[in-house]
Amino acid sequence: MEKLYNGKLESGLSPTTVRHIHARIHTALKQALRRGLVFRNVAGLVTPPKRAFREMLFLTPVEARKVLSAAQGDRLESLYILALTSGLRKGELLGLSWNNIDLDNHKLRVEVALLTDNTLAPPKTAKGRRVLSLTKLAVDSLRKRKIVQIEEQLLAGSAWRNQRNFVFTNSVGSHLNPSHLSGRLFPALLRRAQVKRIRFHDLRHSTASLLLSLDVHPKIVQELLGHSNISITMDIYSHSMPSLQEGAVAKLDALLSG
């Protein structure tokens, strides 16, 4: 088992991805053990690699506005707006279908995500399957996106490939390449915006940080992001909590001071 994990690491997979592989093997062997198909769960004897620490970055309000300004007119403008205003993961954005969006009622339903192997999978936890309220900014941009996509479909004709009704596609309707988005398109946007370089996933961090800085309750942020419990949200975004604590103490002081 350790040889397998080491081989995956040497092939370029991240420790986090290898941990996911370990978890799936462990679950599969656990079920096999219950059915009497194996005598022991050998995955339980192996320690998976530790998660690699990566500094969490996020956009300030000024930087976020610069990014949105630089995205104006971009073919994927609505994707960047939705990412920054919804906190959706990259896979959730790329796996998003028009069937899961209600523009009239400003709602979006998260049901699947596009994985790195280009397959669709449901959220890992019950909290991941969620319904979000959309900002007017996101709704307006999605309406424009729908018009652009219809125009692209007409131009592509029989070459159109969007059988799953994806929201974000290339010019012939196929789903966007996650690596191309993260490695080329998004960095190019950041350069145009003249802001620090961050990962695409940091847009999700930025959403949470911006909301918490506006004194939005962490429970709401948890539900928006789809975290399985609020402790995850609190642990990840503790850097944004001081202002909440200061505000709470000030309110308590005013109440007791009469």
Structure explained in plain terms:
The chain is built from 11 helices and 5 strands. The protein is mainly α and 258 residues long. Strand 1 (101-102) and strand 2 form a beta hairpin. Helix 3 packs antiparallel against helix 4 (77-86), helix 4 packs antiparallel against helix 6 and helix 4 (77-86) crosses helix 8.
DSSP strand (E) fraction? 5-15%
Quaternary structure:
single chain
Spatial gap, N to C terminus: 65 Å
Q: Output the number of helix runs.
A: 11
Mean pLDDT: 87
**Unreliable residue runs:** none
Write a concise synopsis of the structure shown:
52% of the residues lie in helices and 5% in strands. It has 258 residues and is mainly alpha-helical.
Task: List the main descriptive attributes of the protein structure presented here.
single chain, 258 residues, mainly alpha, 3-stranded antiparallel sheet, two-stranded antiparallel ribbon, 11 helices, 52% helix
Tell me the layout of helices and strands:
Elements: H1 2-10, H2 15-34, H3 61-71, H4 77-86, H5 90-94, E1 101-102, E2 107-110, E3 113-114, E4 120-121, E5 130-133, H6 136-156, H7 178-193, H8 202-213, H9 218-225, H10 230-236, H11 242-257
Antiparallel strand pairs: 1-2, 2-5, 3-4
